Amino acid sequence: MNNNHRRFAVPFLLAGLVMAMQVAAQDAPAAGEPVLGTDYTEKGADTCLKCHDEDSKFPVLSIFKTKHAQKDDHRAPFGKLQCESCHGPGAKHAEKVRPGEERPPIMNFGVRSKQTATQQNKACMGCHERGNRMAWKGSEHEAGDVACASCHQIHATRDRVFTAGGQSEACFACHIKQRGDFFKSSAHPVRYGTLRCSDCHSPHGSAAAGKLLAKPTLNQTCYSCHAEKRGPLLWEHAPVSEDCSTCHTPHGSVHPALLKKPAPLLCQQCHSPAGHPSVAYTGAALPSGTPSGFLLANSCMNCHSQVHGSNHPSGARLMR
Ligand code: HEC
Ligand code: HEC
Ligand code: HEC
Ligand code: HEC
Ligand code: HEC
Ligand code: HEC
Ligand code: HEC
Ligand code: HEC
Ligand code: HEC
Ligand code: HEC
Hints:
mainly alpha, two-stranded antiparallel ribbon, two-stranded parallel sheet
């Protein structure tokens, strides 16, 4: 550690005191919640690191390999109050305590934190309110009391959300059903790391109505990779341009091509089976309809192969 903090120690100490007093006035701790200190340490990280290092129960040093520890970046925690930019005033916490005496608490994050998600997030939002966090307020995750630190790892060389496997594990910790979906026989290749949740979702809030989608609508989200399905097409198939999720599940399905149901059932939700091959010939006697060999293999798509619409002059029946 160098003694960089001296540059700001005094002005920030004062600013910190004023800030802390304001904070204390606004959010008086609820009953049972620990009362946090209001004074910053004089020596910043140097003080903290006397007791917290890589050999501690919770190793802290990997933060020095991250953007947060850039001392030359005046926006970053280590260009400011260092550890206490996030953990808040720590002078009281850092004092010597007598054996048997309880150490005064300090602001904490993550699973062992005694502060609410809102209180934790405020520490981060002081620096991160802009950019992708513009829609955080009112988002599903904010409303669900999810903390920034539930997804992000601050004391890690590489925050897991920036790696494909790490990110989905972070999400699956709470979204267990979706984990199951991605392991079905037909699935978007998230488990191979080809896709990430954040290719389709904005975890910090979104302009879409619900489901935290990366684009304003579900179809626009799909078009960002499956552009060929957008058209314009000479012969559109109405449900396709309306909503891909009429026929597809976004994550995974036991039916091929992420389909919600297999054809012909899928199609017959809307199209009458009358006057058409409607029941596949399987060799077994069937109670209704005329069994047809045309419905084996690709079912209705044996003939209507252009189920997403057609650009062929005579593609009105989606057959070419
Ligand atoms: C004199 C030793 C000492 C110093 C200095 C110290 N800590 Fe701690 N800290 C501890 C101990 C011991 C614990 C565990 C407390 C417990 O388990 O009750 C702890 C716990 C914590 C926790 C968990 C939350 C809590 O209240 O238990 C955080 C976060 C923390 N310290 C951050 C810091 C920061 C940031 C600094 C510098 C401002 C700092 N510590 C300075 C000894 C110290
Ligand atoms: C950018 C914000 C930020 C900065 C700066 C920061 N921390 Fe943390 N700290 C966190 C978060 C978030 C956690 C929750 C654990 C995690 O990252 O998974 C945490 C956890 C901890 C813990 C573990 C507490 C427990 O529950 O056992 C200690 C100790 C700690 N920090 C000490 C420090 C020290 C010492 C520094 C300075 C060298 C520091 N922190 C700088 C955000 C920060
Ligand atoms: C004192 C200001 C400050 C605080 C407090 C702060 N950050 Fe940051 N954070 C920054 C800066 C500056 C960067 C680097 C931005 C850049 O280079 O574009 C950054 C980068 C990040 C990144 C991107 C890291 C990367 O490798 O690209 C994440 C994620 C992040 N912060 C999360 C958090 C979380 C979560 C908290 C609260 C626990 C927090 N930050 C608290 C200033 C802060
Ligand atoms: C539900 C999980 C989740 C939560 C909660 C979350 N993030 Fe993120 N965050 C991510 C993911 C995933 C990425 C990577 C996005 C990508 O790869 O495009 C990310 C990226 C970032 C980045 C770097 C890129 C950018 O968008 O600027 C910052 C900074 C950041 N988050 C800050 C925060 C802050 C502050 C909070 C709390 C208000 C927060 N995050 C809450 C999942 C989350
Ligand atoms: C290919 C794009 C895509 C990917 C990748 C993706 N999602 Fe989704 N997700 C969607 C769409 C689209 C919806 C909305 C479905 C609807 O409205 O019918 C959705 C809905 C959700 C929902 C709401 C509940 C539900 O199942 O409808 C959750 C939770 C969710 N996704 C979590 C995740 C997680 C976690 C990951 C990563 C492991 C992930 N998603 C990856 C597209 C995607
Ligand atoms: C700490 C738990 C937690 C983590 C981690 C988490 N989420 Fe969530 N998520 C929630 C809660 C709570 C809600 C709001 C309640 C609900 O709809 O289930 C939510 C809602 C959502 C929704 C909207 C669901 C809807 O029905 O509108 C999506 C999409 C989503 N999360 C995706 C993600 C992704 C992607 C990640 C990882 C980057 C992630 N979540 C990580 C807890 C979490
Ligand atoms: C970030 C890019 C991306 C987005 C966004 C995306 N997909 Fe995909 N999709 C892929 C990739 C990659 C594959 C796998 C292609 C392969 O295996 O050759 C795929 C495959 C598919 C498949 C074929 C699956 C199979 O088993 O044959 C369907 C159907 C599909 N996507 C539908 C959708 C729908 C519906 C949406 C919108 C909810 C969507 N995709 C959004 C990238 C994306
Ligand atoms: C009317 C039902 C239906 C709708 C709506 C629909 N699809 Fe499909 N999709 C299918 C069927 C059926 C298949 C399988 C085709 C086959 O087996 O020949 C398929 C296959 C796919 C495939 C994999 C094969 C290929 O053609 O590339 C992708 C990708 C795909 N759909 C994307 C989309 C997107 C994106 C949307 C929304 C714009 C959408 N689908 C809307 C029925 C539908
Ligand atoms: C959600 C309802 C819905 C589903 C599911 C659906 N379609 Fe359609 N389909 C329509 C509508 C609406 C039209 C337009 C009818 C019109 O213009 O008269 C249409 C048109 C068609 C046409 C062109 C017929 C014409 O009259 O121009 C064919 C062929 C077709 N669908 C085949 C299929 C097949 C094959 C499937 C299954 C993969 C399927 N559809 C699933 C609603 C659906
Ligand atoms: C053996 C080829 C074949 C198969 C298999 C097939 N169709 Fe057709 N379908 C046709 C032909 C040919 C037409 C055009 C009739 C016309 O132009 O008058 C047609 C027309 C249609 C139309 C337009 C309205 C109508 O009845 O004329 C719809 C809707 C349709 N098919 C849906 C389906 C569905 C749903 C399935 C699966 C259950 C299916 N088709 C299977 C050949 C097939």
